[in-house]
Specification:
Helices cover 31% and strands 25% of the residues. Helix 6 crosses helix 8 (247-254). The protein has 8 helices and 11 strands. By secondary structure, it is of the alpha+beta class. A hairpin with a 2-residue loop joins strand 7 (149-155) and strand 8.
Length: 261
């Protein structure tokens, strides 16, 4: 099965002009602060049918402001030489100098309930193979900002080829990260990797925050190094702390969403 996304032939047409107060890229995509819905459209369908289940492609409703290759060469002149020699070059942390990407990373963490998200700009010469976008344990979104790329993926026993054109994106669940073949123009991609929050990570952060906020009570007659007694004390103290409290608020504090009291 082959899926091709081309803004000239599929999906809703992008606006040629921006509303008052917004700007546009050369592709006509509005540079507004965007969230998950700006990438995947219907978020209910995304969470119910795609997230953590299968790869899927989307026609982006909006893209963040980004940099041209000339801008990237100014940041790292040596990268231009590697790129001219046929290498793919990766620029980590573009949110530090592109506010729109920083806003998108923050919004993704909020919308996905994620512990962490990272961004990178990847520029790959035409006709070559781009590197794998992320570790296999991460959720990954790849936004095609310029050029095109083709991905050979698998969903169950069915091989799937997804072709991305400018303003389209692919979601890759954990275990699906793979290299992509770039088309006949240089490819510029925004790679967003998301580390999903699990119960263990929430517990670890909650315990660490608790121990920093309150001094441990000594256990009479027990040496501080006796682990079993310390664990029993911690279990009792945490149970008392959580009794009658808003569990969602505790989780937000554990993930750094709001300060501890």
């Amino acid at each position: 099965m082959t899926v091709a996304l081309d803004p000239t032939s599929q999906g809703a047409r992008l606006p040629a002009t921006a509303p008052s107060g917004a700007t546009t890229t050369g592709t006509g995509v509005r540079n507004l602060p965007i969230r998950l819905a700006g990438i995947v459209g219907d978020t209910d369908s995304f969470f119910g049918e795609v997230w953590g289940i299968r790869p899927a492609s989307f026609h982006c409703r909006a893209l963040p402001d980004t940099a041209t290759p000339a801008d990237l060469w100014k940041r790292d002149p040596a990268a231009q030489e590697r790129f001219a020699g046929g290498e793919s070059v990766r620029f980590d942390g573009p949110g530090e100098w592109l506010p729109g990407i920083a806003d998108l990373v923050t919004a993704l963490c909020e919308d996905l309930g994620a512990a962490n998200a990272q961004a990178a700009l990847v520029l790959t010469p035409a006709g070559t193979v781009a590197p794998e976008p992320a570790a296999h344990g991460d959720h990954t979104f790849v936004l095609q900002l310029d050029g095109s790329s083709s991905w050979d993926l698998a969903y169950g026993r069915v091989p799937v080829t997804i072709t991305l054109h400018r303003t389209s994106a692919v979601y890759l669940p954990p275990g699906q990260a793979c290299p992509a073949v770039v088309g006949d123009e240089d490819s510029l991609q925004l790679v967003l990797t998301v580390q999903e929050t699990d119960k263990r990570k929430v517990a670890e952060r909650a315990i660490a925050a608790f121990l920093q906020a309150a001094a441990e009570k000594p256990v009479p007659g027990i040496h501080p190094a006796v682990a079993d007694e310390k664990v029993a004390w911690l279990r009792t103290e945490l149970a008392g702390l959580m009794a009658g409290q808003d569990v969602s608020a505790i989780v937000r504090r554990a993930l750094g969403g709001e300060p501890t009291a």
